Amino acid sequence: MERMLAGVLAGVLAGATGAQAEMLRIDWLERQVVPPPVLSNMQAEPATLGLDGARLSLTDIATTGKFTGQDYRLVETVVPPEAAFLPAAKAALADGARVLVVRAPAADLLALADLPEAQGALIFNTEAPDEALRGTDCRANVLHTLPSYAMRTDALAQFIVTKRWTHLAIIEGTLPEDRAYAAALRASLTKFGLSLAAGKTWDFDANMRRAAAAEVPLFTQDLPEHDLLLVADEPGDFARYVAYNTWLPRPLAGSEGAKPVGWAGVVEQNGAAQLQNRFRDLAGRAMTADDYAAWVAVAAIGEAATRTRASDAATLRGYLLSDKARIGGFLGRPLGFRDWDGQLRQPIPIVTERAVVAQAPFEGFLHATNELDTLGPDRPETQCTAFGGAK
């Protein structure tokens, strides 16, 4: 079981015994948002989405801290939709926050990172998948534990190549996140030598619970012959009604069907079942990608603190961006951060509602140093300059 205990206790037990624990403060800073209206009222977002992952991870690293003479405290700040985000962020920084795990939209995250008070802080982005945050809008004080759009769509494109599906079509929604995901999908298909035969925009506003069986076949009837239908529906709104209602009986992938995700409740290999069980005991629900992003952010903090015996943001950041970082993430291989854009490199599971179908990167997609870097922008491709750019 990956608990980050193996390999770290032998060298520190003797020195830690009897020593007073050093406190490392970790701040959870969340900006709640009102989700867009959807066609179904069946999906209610948990009130503590993400935060539950951070809380569980704190108990994990606290267990290690008992042996290493380190203690951790999670300070939670949740900003409701009607309140201003920056005053709350400034208050946390003024109170001593230097290591922050943040769940907030991209605009709020950048506003926080650009605060004079936040220079020298270490900020973990667990919510925003935007490509620009890892590219032209990257910030040196921000690391990302949620996979970018490109990481997920590169994983899906690799999967499609392994299946030898060459005729592809896409349906995309009209929300900004739908368009961003669709754009990433197109870029990934091009990257791996694939192309789209056709695409359509979903602009229905009718009650699909009643009309899907009649409307979806007509909507998809004019699509050309295809092996796979891709769907870009990031809120999970309409894609559920596309399944089994298309004119041609074809599998779905993207936001429905075979989905590339950072984590899901069906991940159970490599000791993940134990993490899933502990999360269910804590939260009473399945662990999502948002929860995992928060969990692994706190796990990374604990790993860095254990290895460096330090609690200051600069030392923790330096370790996490180094080749020494090896974060146990229950995904079959150690995780680490890319030193050119601050993104956590990790395998990407391809999942359905009930099982893991596969996990990227796949055999045959080689890399000079790390096959995980075939997912998302590689060093030569990065547009981020805050970390030093390409080397």
Structure description:
The protein folds into two domains: 23-147 and 264-348, Rossmann fold (3-Layer(aba) Sandwich), CATH 3.40.50.2300; 150-260, Response regulator (Rossmann fold). The relative contact order is 0.15. Helices cover 33% and strands 17% of the residues. The strands form four sheets. Strands 2-1-3-4-5 form a five-stranded parallel β-sheet, with helices on both faces. Strands 7-6-8-9 form a four-stranded parallel β-sheet, with helices on one face. It starts with 12 loop residues before the first helix and ends in a 31-residue tail after the last strand. It has 391 residues and is α/β, with parallel strands linked by helices. α8 (239-242) links the parallel β8 (228-232) and β9. It is built from eleven helices and 14 strands. The radius of gyration is 21 Å and the shape is globular. The protein has helices spanning 13-16, 51-68, 85-94, 106-113, 149-163, 176-191, 208-220, 239-242, 272-283, 289-308, 313-320, and strands at 22-31, 70-79, 99-103, 122-125, 142-144, 168-172, 196-201, 228-232, 252-254, 259-260, 336-337, 344-345, 348-351, 356-360. The longest helix is centred in the C-terminal third of the chain and has 20 residues, at 289-308. Pfam families: Peripla_BP_6 (PF13458). This is Branched-chain amino acid ABC transporter substrate-binding protein. Belongs to the leucine-binding protein family. Residues 51-213 form the Leucine-binding protein domain. Keywords: Signal.
